[in-house]
Amino acid sequence: MSNHITIHGNVGQEPEVRITPSNMTVVTFTVADTYGKDANKKTTWHNITAFGQLAENISNSLHKGDTVIVSGRLEDDEFTKKDGTKGKSRKVIADEVGVSLRWNVYLKDNTEQTMKNVQKAFGKPVGFDDF
Q1: In CATH, which superfamily holds the domain spanning 4-102?
Q2: Distance, CA of 92 to CA of 8 (rounded, Å)
Protein backbone atom coordinates (compact mmCIF):
# COMPACT_ATOMS: atom_id res chain seq x y z
CA MET A 1 0.00 0.00 0.00
CA SER A 2 1.31 3.42 -0.95
CA ASN A 3 1.12 6.34 1.45
CA HIS A 4 1.52 8.95 -1.32
CA ILE A 5 -1.11 11.69 -1.46
CA THR A 6 -1.90 14.70 -3.62
CA ILE A 7 -4.01 17.51 -2.16
CA HIS A 8 -5.63 20.48 -3.86
CA GLY A 9 -6.89 23.27 -1.62
CA ASN A 10 -6.30 26.66 -0.03
CA VAL A 11 -3.51 27.60 2.37
CA GLY A 12 -5.19 28.02 5.77
CA GLN A 13 -2.67 30.29 7.50
CA GLU A 14 0.64 31.97 6.74
CA PRO A 15 3.36 29.30 6.54
CA GLU A 16 5.32 29.09 9.82
CA VAL A 17 9.09 28.87 9.41
CA ARG A 18 11.63 27.58 11.89
CA ILE A 19 15.28 26.63 11.74
CA THR A 20 16.47 23.39 13.37
CA PRO A 21 19.66 23.23 15.49
CA SER A 22 21.36 21.66 12.45
CA ASN A 23 20.40 24.77 10.40
CA MET A 24 17.67 23.01 8.37
CA THR A 25 14.69 25.15 7.35
CA VAL A 26 11.29 23.65 8.22
CA VAL A 27 7.94 25.15 7.24
CA THR A 28 4.50 24.09 8.41
CA PHE A 29 1.09 25.19 7.17
CA THR A 30 -2.41 23.86 6.65
CA VAL A 31 -4.39 23.26 3.49
CA ALA A 32 -8.20 23.25 3.43
CA ASP A 33 -9.58 20.73 0.93
CA THR A 34 -13.26 21.59 0.38
CA TYR A 35 -15.57 19.31 -1.57
CA GLY A 36 -19.27 18.83 -2.12
CA LYS A 37 -21.94 21.41 -2.77
CA ASP A 38 -24.33 23.51 -0.69
CA ALA A 39 -25.57 21.57 2.37
CA ASN A 40 -23.24 18.66 1.55
CA LYS A 41 -20.11 20.84 1.50
CA LYS A 42 -17.30 19.51 3.71
CA THR A 43 -13.78 20.70 4.45
CA THR A 44 -10.85 18.50 5.42
CA TRP A 45 -7.82 20.23 6.95
CA HIS A 46 -4.37 18.83 6.15
CA ASN A 47 -1.20 19.63 8.14
CA ILE A 48 1.72 20.10 5.74
CA THR A 49 5.45 20.02 6.58
CA ALA A 50 8.33 20.75 4.19
CA PHE A 51 12.10 20.82 4.66
CA GLY A 52 15.19 22.48 3.15
CA GLN A 53 15.00 24.45 -0.09
CA LEU A 54 11.33 23.56 -0.59
CA ALA A 55 10.54 25.01 2.85
CA GLU A 56 12.42 28.22 2.02
CA ASN A 57 10.63 28.55 -1.33
CA ILE A 58 7.25 28.02 0.33
CA SER A 59 7.95 30.61 3.03
CA ASN A 60 8.92 33.16 0.35
CA SER A 61 6.06 32.38 -2.02
CA LEU A 62 2.84 31.17 -0.37
CA HIS A 63 0.32 33.12 1.66
CA LYS A 64 -2.97 32.45 3.42
CA GLY A 65 -5.71 31.84 0.85
CA ASP A 66 -3.44 30.78 -2.02
CA THR A 67 -4.74 27.78 -3.96
CA VAL A 68 -2.08 25.07 -4.02
CA ILE A 69 -1.39 21.51 -5.04
CA VAL A 70 0.67 19.49 -2.54
CA SER A 71 2.19 16.12 -3.29
CA GLY A 72 3.87 14.07 -0.59
CA ARG A 73 3.67 11.17 1.82
CA LEU A 74 1.42 10.65 4.81
CA GLU A 75 3.04 10.37 8.20
CA ASP A 76 1.37 9.59 11.54
CA ASP A 77 2.63 11.08 14.81
CA GLU A 78 1.88 9.95 18.33
CA PHE A 79 2.13 12.36 21.23
CA THR A 80 1.19 12.70 24.88
CA LYS A 81 -1.57 15.17 25.66
CA LYS A 82 -1.52 17.50 28.67
CA ASP A 83 -3.86 15.13 30.53
CA GLY A 84 -1.41 12.24 30.02
CA THR A 85 -3.42 10.35 27.39
CA LYS A 86 -2.00 9.41 24.02
CA GLY A 87 -2.97 11.33 20.89
CA LYS A 88 -2.40 10.86 17.19
CA SER A 89 -2.08 13.30 14.33
CA ARG A 90 -1.52 12.90 10.63
CA LYS A 91 0.56 15.17 8.44
CA VAL A 92 1.81 15.32 4.88
CA ILE A 93 5.55 15.54 4.32
CA ALA A 94 5.65 17.57 1.10
CA ASP A 95 7.80 16.51 -1.84
CA GLU A 96 6.32 19.12 -4.20
CA VAL A 97 4.19 22.22 -3.65
CA GLY A 98 2.88 24.42 -6.42
CA VAL A 99 0.39 27.17 -7.06
CA SER A 100 -2.78 25.90 -8.72
CA LEU A 101 -3.56 27.63 -11.99
CA ARG A 102 -7.14 26.36 -12.13
CA TRP A 103 -8.65 29.62 -10.84
CA ASN A 104 -5.62 31.95 -10.77
CA VAL A 105 -3.02 33.38 -13.12
CA TYR A 106 0.60 33.14 -12.02
CA LEU A 107 2.82 36.06 -12.98
CA LYS A 108 6.52 35.38 -12.53
CA ASP A 109 8.69 38.31 -11.44
CA ASN A 110 11.70 38.37 -13.77
CA THR A 111 13.08 41.71 -12.52
CA GLU A 112 16.30 40.27 -11.09
CA GLN A 113 17.16 38.31 -14.24
CA THR A 114 16.29 41.29 -16.45
CA MET A 115 18.61 43.55 -14.45
CA LYS A 116 21.44 41.00 -14.78
CA ASN A 117 20.90 40.90 -18.55
CA VAL A 118 20.94 44.71 -18.76
CA GLN A 119 24.11 44.84 -16.64
CA LYS A 120 25.77 42.30 -18.91
CA ALA A 121 24.79 44.30 -22.01
CA PHE A 122 26.11 47.61 -20.59
CA GLY A 123 29.14 46.07 -18.86
CA LYS A 124 28.54 47.91 -15.60
CA PRO A 125 26.10 47.76 -12.69
CA VAL A 126 22.80 49.32 -13.71
CA GLY A 127 20.06 50.64 -11.46
CA PHE A 128 16.54 51.89 -12.13
CA ASP A 129 17.84 55.50 -11.92
CA ASP A 130 19.90 54.89 -15.08
CA PHE A 131 16.81 54.79 -17.31
Answers
A1: Nucleic acid-binding proteins (2.40.50.140)
A2: 13
